[in-house]
Amino acid sequence: LAKTTQPISMDSYEGQEVNITCSHNNIATNDYITWYQQFPSQGPRFIIQGYKTKVTNEVASLFIPADRKSSTLSLPRVSLSDTAVYYCLVAGNNAGNMLTFGGGTRLMVKP
Amino acid sequence: ETGVTQTPRHLVMGMTNKKSLKCEQHLGHNAMYWYKQSAKKPLELMFVYSLEERVENNSVPSRFSPECPNSSHLFLHLHTLQPEDSALYLCASSQALQFKEQYFGPGTRLTVT
Fold this sequence. Notes:
The complex is a heterodimer of chains A (111) and B (113).
Chain A: E1 9-13, E2 18-23, E3 32-38, E4 45-50, E5 53-56, E6 61-64, E7 70-75, E8 84-91, E9 105-110
Parallel strand pairs in A: 1-9
Antiparallel strand pairs in A: 2-7, 3-4, 3-8, 5-6, 6-7, 8-9
Chain B: E1 4-7, E2 10-13, E3 18-25, E4 31-37, E5 44-50, E6 53-57, E7 64-70, E8 73-79, E9 87-94, E10 103-104, E11 108-112
Parallel strand pairs in B: 2-11
Antiparallel strand pairs in B: 1-3, 3-8, 4-5, 4-9, 5-6, 7-8, 9-10, 9-11
């Protein structure tokens, strides 16, 4: 499974757009990029997933360049409730090697 | 109940106790997973089950014993734990054995005294 690198933490203010970038230089052809959100003492929650170009849902957008070596999670107009840890995961359809979540990005949204 | 549920949500146990964590998924998935999340550490995959067969055991100590009686239920039996085993234990499920889209339960906060 491709290793991912994300910033440890980010600060933002309510109403701003937040972009969190994840690097995954060794992404494999059959790997997808998935982002999870985790609040304290809760399990991670699936946010969005993509393979290439751009994906948008009601929560976020995911931008993936042509070389797929990085991806950017975009959260529009964040609120205080978006304060959480965001994990980028690169994995394919097979179990493959043992899965390792990275350290994630701790987003703090301030009023 | 919808999604993935876990019981109990909180558990305090002594090092000589035996307890079990329960996970149930209501999503019709056929793969289930146990993860451990210690304070300020990344999620660690412990066990993987697909169609009730154990697929992976990520070098987990034998004091943790998983059981998957059917595709909807997953247990983690605990015995003679150590204080460093205190953590949030998360169960997840997915449609088929894959890591690109998993659904997690709320976790069990375990404290070993």
